[in-house]
Amino acid sequence: MLQDAESPVRAPMVDQARLIALKRFHPAGRGFWAKVPEQDWNDWHWQLKHRIGSLAQLERLMPTLTPEERSGAQLANHKLSLGITPYFFNLIDPADDRCPIRRQVIPQIEESHTATWEMTDPCGEDTDSPVPGLVHRYPDRVLFLVTDRCASYCRYCTRSRLVSNAAGYDFHPQFDQQIDYIRRHPEVRDVLLSGGDPLLLSDEKLEALLRQLRAIPHVEFLRIGTRIPIFLPQRITPALCDMFRRYHPLFMSIHTNHPRELTTEAREALGLIADAGVPLGNQSVLLRYVNDDLTVMRALVQKLLMCRVRPYYLYQCDLIAGSAHLRASVRRGLQIMQGLRGFTSGYAVPQYVIDAPGGGGKVPINPEYVLSHNKDRVVFRNFQGRIFEYPEAPDGTPLMPPPAHIEEPQCAWER
Ligand SMILES: *Cc1c(COP(=O)(O)O)cnc(C)c1O
């Protein structure tokens, strides 16, 4: 048993006043860029061109930079580039050196420390890659990396070996090769576009990709993994959303870690995507001093529902080199999950997972609810810690004879 399930479950503590404050929507505002014409500010190309990408820029905009951040920013360009859109930069509280937004995008010197168990490819993606930029780990779906660029760079990026191309990985995906692989593998029914951020491609390039994938008869389901609605909501234009409508069923997974990232601008962008019929999910990473706190996490998942986004996964932070200062414990993750299930809408509760180090895939990690299970009964507790039992039914004789042999389609690398 994972934890001492028999000890009474303590009611999780949530600070109600803070919860209400965190759930309020605010605009990111114009901050340092108050004089920039509205038209430029709302132009995603302008936002990208004016990203904060150097220590000199950071020092000019943030006099409160700590020595640890200054050294971190100096080293960043050899590992994972520094890059923050002006829009997202405005969410940082310069007076707070533990600001949850700041910790996600401003490098710290600790990034240059690598613990013995940390890796540059913590999920072993490169070993499950039959052609460059394609990861085929699970039987029926592939991860299709379309670019190494993002609108801003998350300091705990699990793919920092290739993302931003600062570490010399030389990432040049050949869409033809990736698409050809999918065409030749009828077991692939689900294609997940990621990177880098696929929404940095032009509408035309993205549409060409979606069109080619949709033309493959065995591809049933398309999805895009993106942080653009959070880093660069200006990119979510009516034209882009109109294009999405032509490629259904198309789902989207966004990446949000803290309720303050859900601004009025982000809510509007997410509404446009939802109006185009694209179901939205969210993936969060459990991060120390960012969201390893029940009040913050409850505010985040409830606020996501208000933005029409269903929390999908909560990831234990991968063992990426230089991330120790951002990782929270699995114990903390379980406590937070315990404080969500039953205490708030089931739709607001993500699945907590660890992507198994070295390449085992995502494994669900759950607080223990089953106390015992034998052939007569199952004994379990509810979210409040009250104990119940349910009589086990006999399995009986199957109505249908079992199939002669059961063979799941295998991944290419298993053959
Ligand atoms: C996460 C992931 C997927 C998608 O997994 P789902 O559980 O279906 O969301 C597919 N391929 C790889 C390599 C992944 O890491």
Features:
single chain; 415 residues; alpha/beta; TIM Barrel; 2 domains; nine-stranded mixed β-sheet; three-stranded antiparallel β-sheet; 14 helices; 12 strands; 16% strand; binds pyridoxal-5'-phosphate
Report on the architecture of this protein.
It is a single chain. The chain is an alpha/beta fold and about 425 residues long. The chain has two domains: about 25-105, no CATH class; about 125-365, Aldolase class I (TIM Barrel), CATH 3.20.20.70. The chain is built from 14 helices and twelve strands. The strands form two sheets. Strands 1-2-3-4-5-6-7-8-9 form a nine-stranded mixed beta sheet. Strand 3, helix 9 and strand 4 form a beta-alpha-beta unit. Helix 1 (about 15-20) crosses helix 13. The chain is globular, with a radius of gyration of 23 Å. The two termini are about 35 Å apart. The mean pLDDT is about 95. The structure holds pyridoxal-5'-phosphate (PLP).
